[in-house]
Every structure is written in C-alpha cells, then in structure tokens.
Amino acid sequence: MFKKFNLQETMSGQNSVKSSVVRGIRTKLVEQFPGLEPHLDEILPKKANLIQIKCKDHITLFSIDNEVLFFQHFNDPVTPTLRLLHQFPDILPQVQVDRGAIKFVLSGANIMCPGLTSPGAKLPDECIPEGATVAVMAEGKEHALAIGVTKMSTDDIKSINKGNGIDLIQYLGDPLWKTRLD
After folding, report:
1. Which residue in 109, 182, 179 sits closest to 145, CA to CA?
2. What does DSSP assign to residue 4?
3. Sequence-ordered alpha helix ranges (H) in the chain
4. Rounded Cα distance, 145 and 89, in Å
5. Cβ density class 83-107: b for 16+ within 10 Å, e for less
6. How far apart are CA 115 and CA 54, in angstroms?
7. Helical (H) or strand (E) element with 181
8. 123 closest CA partner among 152, 94, 151, 148
C-alpha cells in the first residue's frame, strides 16, 4: 500500500480531530485489537491533540506530536503503524516467516503460505481468521518486519499450504516507515 508513498506529494490536508471522534477511534481500536487496550491511554491519551492527515488514494494518517501512529485506507479498519508495533509488540497477533522469506518481505512482497509453514516459520496455535491484521515476525529477529492482512485463516494456511497467505500493508523500510512529520 505504501510502496510509492510520498507524504509531501500526496498530502491534501490536515486538521485536528474532535475529542468525540477520538473517543470513537479509541473504541474501534479496542474492538479491533484487544491487545491494545492496556496501552491505549499511553498511546492515545484522552486529551491528546490527534491530527488527521488526508492523503491521495483515500489514505488517512493519524498522528500525535509529529509521530504517525495509525493509518486507514478508505473504509478499512484503522491500523497501527510499524513504529507503534515496535514500541508495543503485543498489540497484534503474530506470525513468523522463515529466514528465506525475509528479503522478499523487506522488498514489499506478499507472503506465500510455504513461507509460513516451513521449518523456522511459526503460526499461532489459535486460529487467526481471514482478513485479520497481523504482525509479521522473522525467524531469529526481535522486532516485526511488516504488518499484513491474512488472505485465509491460519488453519487454512496450514492445510492448503499454497498461494498467497498474507497481503502486506506496511513493511520495514517502506516510504511510510521513512516518513517524518517535522
């Protein structure tokens, strides 16, 4: 999604978000990402000045203190950025790719099922449904490589083991990762 993103070229406007809208965003975030609830007051304080940055291609960024915390594409769910995920690694369910997939993930390629089921890769024991936002970890690495959306449930990934398993939304080193709001 952010492969060719450039904030200066795509930004069409920014404005402060009303406190009532911030409350709505907080509620939606807790519904979507239960792991976010213990950290919500630290990440998105009730009295924070949340800035909404509208960009082309129906992308909306949400920032506090010149740091992009969340993004939204069209009417998709509001999603935490990779930088926020590095600060709070337990807010999203995690899947792990094997060492062979790392270079492809870092270049923005979607993750194929064999990269999630081979030795070195790990899928959680509990089933993650299709369409869930997940953190993509790497074998032998501490922090997440990417954020993606599952194309099929993790049970299907294990059993079918063919095709595209996860579509990447954001990856380490992409233009959103490099974006600074200074």
Report:
1. 109
2. T
3. 7-10, 19-32, 40-43, 82-87, 102-105, 114-117, 154-160, 175-178
4. 11
5. ebbeebeebbbbbbbbeebbebbee
6. 35
7. none
8. 94
* HEC per residue, 12-57: EEEEECCHHHHHHHHHHHHHHCHHHHHHHHHHCCCCCCCEEEEECC
Q: Buried b vs exposed e over 120-144: b needs ≥16 C-beta within 10 Å?
A: ebebeeeebeeebbbbbbbbeeeeb
| Structural element, H or E, at residue 95 | strand 94-97
Beta bridge mates, 94 = 135
Residues 165 and 98: beta-carbon distance below 8 Å: no
pLDDT in tens, 119-153: 999 999 999 999 999 999 999 899 999 999 999 99
Return the structure tokens found at 13.
């406007």
pLDDT, position 79? 94
Q: What is the pTM of this model?
A: 0.91
Q: At which residue do the structure tokens 């449930």 appear?
A: 153
DSSP 115: H
